[in-house]
């Protein structure tokens, strides 16, 4: 009996903090900044919103926090419809993109404010404030004024201030953007740690895809107010559904191409030559003869071989070595294939007979690894600073 | 600062000296021993100050003016703060309209407003009461209160109040803990500036006094019509000193920059 009771208690702890976003749209006047967003975030998930500037990440956080209401659709927290529920009554904490620290309070007063509102006894408050100030690496700075802090220190105060309340959902809007690499790594680990210990649901916003893949359970790739793809970081990396997503997560080689025949295999014409791909290479669109398309290959899927080489089952392209860069265990080879620049990455110790820069070579890849996408639409291309 | 041409520099100095000249004359005349307002004084004496401090009519008028100024400034600052806060947060689009309404008292001659005020107060049946004077002073001072308060509030990051709310603060609590302290200098500016204007207001107030109540500047005005006694110079000097102290205080706690900043966005 006791065990079942205990179990049900821990079950209850596990289930608080789930968020259901159903068909949510948000418009300002005539412009729709979020379009039909559907997301089910399980309790305790570390979910990251990833997307270019202006794609609606902050807007989505503001909707969850209740600062703004959806124009369409519903947001529920722990199964409860949040429509009309004021911010104060939602089980959330938030780290704001612009931090929103109270400038007339000291560091410790900022961290203590929420505890004070909860009428936490003075001794406990002091102890918790100190613990979280230590946690973010600001020990001994409790008495500092906000104006006396660096950008990175301010971000850490904002983190401590929201973590100390241990909400079941924490919304973090680019909380690590102003930190240097080392501190960033350190706090990424600390955040992940806290998140797992407290079983908090994190909705985390970042521009940094490396950060996103490192710390999240789930990544949501957004663009122009639309959710492009949701999944575990490795799944999104391995099987992106659109060109936008594959460009956004990880490094990518793109070969502009034209479809010359569709069946049973795809015949593709490129500046680097003609070859065939399996029909399953096409993702997110049904190619027709004459369609423009883009072939995508990850740098680690390319092999650089001497000109005479021929490997059965592999697609071989004529290429030229432009340069070679050894970064510790990895070697990056810049290549010119037809009219396209490409990058191949391999383990340095696997690169037994390196070809000198300028020499002709062959580039090979497994046609089953290649992905064929429709080209980016103009508005999405602009997110990468490209002109279609 | 840009350098000024010699002409505008000379003109500037002349103006700066000429503006307070009447005050120096009143100041000098107040120490005159004779029974007439005279400058330069013939003999020196403090008799008019003694009279000013011992005649209960003056003491009462000073007291009335001070408390009316205090009530006016607190009420008008509260109104401005709430109006500015709620329009900025919930209805930024109506701000232009609201400012037009609030600044409209600046467009009307005060005598005209006095006539309108007396008609309004008569309808309310409160002519000759402190309430009428305070109500009129609120209307006259509100533009001078709204501007500094609005400027202060507008420069506050709107996410601050949301941050407090996320942590569980009610809107009122967040206002008190976060917004009010940050806007402190704008609020003090409003309090002191409206207090000074109320303390010095004559034209509109004149229409609203009664046998029971009068303010210091109106009392001076009525008095001078019967008797141009140098006690008036002493009283005027005292009221100049009170106003001056308020302005020094204003400069010390808040600075006077609010009046040169634009409040429109
Ligand atoms: N109050 C508003 N009124 C009108 N448009 C708005 C408003 N707030 C946001 N937008 C628009 O909505 C879009 C999404 O904004 P949002 O702040 O959510 O972007 P973001 O993904 O957080 O970008 P960033 O990475 O730069 O922070 C932008 O085009 C922005 O201009
Ligand atoms: Mg943002």
TrEMBL record, chain B:
Gene Ontology biological process terms, A to Z: transmembrane transport
Please report the record's description of how this protein sits within the membrane.
Multi-pass membrane protein
Q: Where are the transmembrane segments?
A: 66-88, 100-120, 126-146, 178-199, 231-250
Database matches in PROSITE patterns: ABC_TM1
User: Which of UniProt's keywords are assigned here?
Assistant: Cell inner membrane, Cell membrane, Membrane, Transmembrane, Transmembrane helix, Transport
The text of the family note is: Belongs to the binding-protein-dependent transport system permease family.
The protein's name is ABC transporter permease
Lineage start: Bacteria, Pseudomonadati, Pseudomonadota, Alphaproteobacteria, Rhodobacterales
């Amino acid at each position: 009996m006791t065990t079942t009771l205990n179990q049900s208690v821990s079950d209850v702890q596990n289930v608080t903090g789930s968020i259901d976003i159903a068909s949510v749209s948000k418009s300002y006047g005539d412009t729709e900044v979020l379009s039909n967003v559907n997301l089910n975030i399980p309790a305790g998930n570390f979910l990251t919103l990833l997307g270019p500037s202006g794609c609606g990440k902050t807007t989505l956080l503001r909707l969850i926090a209740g600062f703004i209401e959806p124009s369409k659709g519903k947001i529920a927290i722990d199964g409860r419809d949040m429509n009309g529920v004021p911010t104060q009554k939602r089980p959330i904490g938030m780290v704001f993109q612009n931090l929103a620290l109270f400038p007339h309070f000291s560091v410790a007063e900022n961290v203590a404010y929420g505890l004070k509102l909860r009428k936490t006894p003075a001794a406990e408050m002091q102890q918790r404030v100190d613990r979280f100030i230590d946690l973010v690496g600001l020990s001994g700075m409790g008495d500092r004024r906000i104006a006396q802090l660096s950008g990175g220190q301010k971000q850490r105060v904002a983190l401590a201030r929201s973590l100390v309340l241990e909400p079941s959902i924490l919304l973090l809007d680019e909380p690590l953007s102003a930190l240097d690499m080392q501190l960033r790594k350190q706090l990424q680990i600390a955040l992940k740690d806290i998140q797992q210990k407290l079983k908090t649901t994190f909705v985390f916003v970042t521009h940094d895809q490396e950060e996103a893949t490192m710390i999240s359970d789930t990544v949501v790739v957004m663009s122009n107010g639309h959710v492009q793809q949701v999944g575990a970081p490795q799944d999104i990396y391995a099987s992106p559904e659109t060109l936008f997503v594959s460009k956004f997560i990880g490094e990518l080689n793109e070969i502009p191409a034209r479809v010359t025949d569709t069946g049973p295999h795809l015949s593709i014409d490129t500046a680097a030559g003609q070859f065939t791909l399996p029909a399953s290479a096409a993702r997110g669109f049904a190619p027709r003869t004459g369609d423009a398309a883009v072939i995508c290959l990850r740098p680690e899927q390319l092999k650089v071989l001497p000109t005479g080489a021929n490997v059965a089952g592999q697609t071989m392209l004529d290429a030229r070595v432009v340069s070679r860069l050894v970064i510790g265990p990895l070697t990056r080879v810049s290549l010119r294939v037809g009219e396209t620049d490409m990058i191949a990455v391999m383990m340095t110790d696997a690169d037994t007979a390196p070809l000198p820069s300028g020499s002709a070579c062959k580039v090979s890849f497994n046609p089953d690894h290649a992905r064929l996408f429709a080209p980016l639409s103009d508005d999405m291309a602009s997110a990468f600073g490209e002109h279609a | 600062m840009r350098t000024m041409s010699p002409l505008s520099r000379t003109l500037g100095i002349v103006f700066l000296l000429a503006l307070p000249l009447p005050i120096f004359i009143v100041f000098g005349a107040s120490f005159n021993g004779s029974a007439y307002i005279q400058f330069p004084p013939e003999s020196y004496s403090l008799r008019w100050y003694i009279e000013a401090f011992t005649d209960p009519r003056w003491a009462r008028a000073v007291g009335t003016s001070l408390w009316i100024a205090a009530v006016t400034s607190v009420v008008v600052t509260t109104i401005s703060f709430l109006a500015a806060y709620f329009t900025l947060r919930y209805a930024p689009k109506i701000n232009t309209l609201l400012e037009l309404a609030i600044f409209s008292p600046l467009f009307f001659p005060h005598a005209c407003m006095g006539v309108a005020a007396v008609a309004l107060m008569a309808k309310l049946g409160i002519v000759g009461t402190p309430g009428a004077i305070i109500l009129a002073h609120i209307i006259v001072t509100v533009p001078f209160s709204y501007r500094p308060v609005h400027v202060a509030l507008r420069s506050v990051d709107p996410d601050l109040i949301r941050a407090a709310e996320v942590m569980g603060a009610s809107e009122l609590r967040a206002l008190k803990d976060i917004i009010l302290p940050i806007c402190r200098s704008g609020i003090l500016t409003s309090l002191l500036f409206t207090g000074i204007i109320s303390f010095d207001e004559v034209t509109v107030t004149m229409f609203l006094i009664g046998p029971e109540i009068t303010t210091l500047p109106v009392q001076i005005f009525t008095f001078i019509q019967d008797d141009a006694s140098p006690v008036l110079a002493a009283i005027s000097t005292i009221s100049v000193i009170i106003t001056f102290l308020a302005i020094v205080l204003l400069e010390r706690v808040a600075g006077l920059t609010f009046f040169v900043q634009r409040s429109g966005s």
